[in-house]
Amino acid sequence: MKRQAAALSAAALLVPLSACGGSAEAGSGSTVTVTVGYQSRTINTVTAGTLLRSLGYFEKRLNSLHDGHTYKVDWQDYATGAPITAQMTAGKIDIGSMGDFPLLLNAARGTQLGRPTRLVSVTGYNLRGGLNTVVTAPGSKLTALKDLKGKKVSTSIGSAADGTLVRALRRAGIDPDKGISKLNQQPAVGASALSGGSVDALSQFVAWPGLLTYQGKAKALYDGAQLNLPTFHGVTAREDFTDQHPAVLGAFLEAQAQATDYLNRHPVTAAEKVAEETDLPAEVVYLYNGAHGIATFDPAVKPQLVSALKQDVSVLKAAKLTGDIDVDSFVDDQYVKKALGSSYARRLAASPAPAASEAWAKGSEKTVSFKDPKQLLAYVAGHRNGLRAAYVPDATTGTLWFADKAVWVTDGGRLLPFVAPATARAYVSAHGGARTISYDEAVEQAS
Questions:
Q1: Which residues contact 91 (CB under 8 A, 6 or more apart)?
Q2: Count H helices, E strands: the chain?
Q3: Contact (CB, 8 A) for 156 and 204
Q4: Per-residue pLDDT tens digits for 235-284
Q5: pLDDT at residue 127 is higher than 60
Q6: Where is the SsuA/THI5-like domain (predicted)?
Q7: Is residue 158 a contact partner of residue 206, using CB atoms and an 8 Å limit?
Q8: What pLDDT does residue 148 have?
Q9: pLDDT score for 17
Q10: Per-residue DSSP letters for 107-172?
């Protein structure tokens, strides 16, 4: 097997460079094509994909290299990380972005085929795991994860969302292999299956849970942040490409940092740009990528994320999707450190901004923030017809959610939102006098 893999690897190196992702060894004055694989609708990768592409920062950085080459960027859009990995290990994609579990499969596949890849930066992350959510149909009688026992659940096996489902089921005392009927489906297929009633629940990554909830086609059953385990998306690059073209990767990471700063400084405009490119509602994009969104964007490779990646390996091994993975060898932050320079240490130490309630008025290029959900609801009461969206953080996990889709609890004079019914019930059980109320009742009480 090892000799066969070596032969395959050697054969791959004989492929003409024009057929590869980057024409790595082209002579001076030639055109070098850099192929970037991204997922436009996986919106926590936008600083290395959709937003970066729309801003043109990478192309501008390449044009400023002045090394005798003319550069062309070939952006290739995919629905998930798996095909990006396949193309990378075939030498046809140079740089790609994907979620944490696909990143590990990328590492394993690259090593197996003798074309190793490296994790070189991070895009969007959530330190509690709030980027993945389990949802059910709006009229479903399921109210807690334990209700999934014996039910049909759609997910994408090998994805971060599948990892969340597996861990959450284990905590609920359900065998993820035998306790449910798991369907391995692409996100769009799973969304259709949920709407059509052929599955009972859907476990997916951004932006699918928020999109379906916003559209009234789903409601949250489980907030991934209840696991309190980091989840993130990152950028991976072929080792042979980075060895041959460190300046090109450096230009990409500098451009990614520039796009990150743009998103953080202009969150509403950035959400509108991503919405225009993906046909996702801007209100959904903002839920994840906004000023207080579920995701925090920073290219720095934080130790907490590397630690979480190591914990993820056991989940993939248990599912027989991979063997051991040397995460320390896979992570290579030397290029992003160089790209970010003196700001790297500051970014590495930075913490996500505290969650806050926000209202987005129609026609406005800015949102309005509030100290607590009750103040937001009072604002909603006076602006019902003038709002695009209102967002509130879960009272226990901090996960941002649509105010009108949250589960509301009144406790004395406080109004507390929750993403999922189970967390709301847990709060009510622990606080005498607290009770759940409807969204309309919460707005009325706040006004």
A1: 12, 15, 20, 21, 115, 238, 240
A2: 19, 18
A3: yes
A4: 999 999 999 999 999 999 999 999 999 999 999 999 999 999 999 999 99
A5: yes
A6: 82-270
A7: no
A8: 98
A9: 34
A10: HHHHHHTT--EEEEEEEEEETT-TTEEEEE-TT----SGGGGTT-EEEE-TTSHHHHHHHHHHHHT
Q: What sign for the dihedral angle of Cα 34, 35, 41, 47?
A: negative
Please report the pLDDT score of residue 22 as a whole number.
Answer: 52
Here the tokens at position 280 are 């996702």
Tell me 438's DSSP state. -
Contact by Cβ (8 Å): 3, 9: no
What is the model's pLDDT at position 15? 33
Start and end residues for every CATH 3.40.190.10 domain found in the chain? 2-127+231-349, 132-227
pLDDT at 354: 87
3-state secondary structure (DSSP) of residue 331: strand
115: left (phi over 0), alpha (psi -120 to 50) or beta: beta
Tokens linked to 21: 């992702």
User: Each residue of 42-101: pLDDT tens digit?
Assistant: 999 999 999 999 999 999 999 999 899 999 999 999 999 999 999 999 999 999 999 999
List, in sequence order, every residue forming a beta bridge with 203; answer none if it has no partner: 134
The CA distance from 385 to 427, in Å, is 32
Q: How far apart are CA 315 and CA 194, in angstroms?
A: 25
Strands of 239-318, DSSP E:
296-297
Task: Judge contact between 221 and 135, C-beta under 8 A.
Answer: yes
Encoded tokens for 435: 């009770």
CATH of domain 132-227: 3.40.190.10
**CATH hierarchy code of domain 2-127+231-349:** 3.40.190.10
Measured in degrees and rounded to the nearest 5, phi and psi for residue 109 equal: -65, -40
Q: How many CB atoms lie within 10 A of CB 331?
A: 18
* Angle in degrees, CA 237, 241, 245, rounded to 5: 115
Residue 245 tokens read as: 């073209």
- Contact yes or no for 267/289 (Cβ under 8 A): yes
- 295-316 mean pLDDT: 97
Query: Among candidates 237, 443, 440, 426, which has minimal Cα distance to 336?
Result: 237
Closest C-alpha to 35, from 197, 293, 241, 218: 241
- 221's enclosing H/E stretch is strand 219-223
Contacts for 444 with CB less than 8 Å, ≥ 6 apart? 381
CA distances from 372 to 317, 356, 361, 376, 389 (A): 43, 7, 18, 7, 16
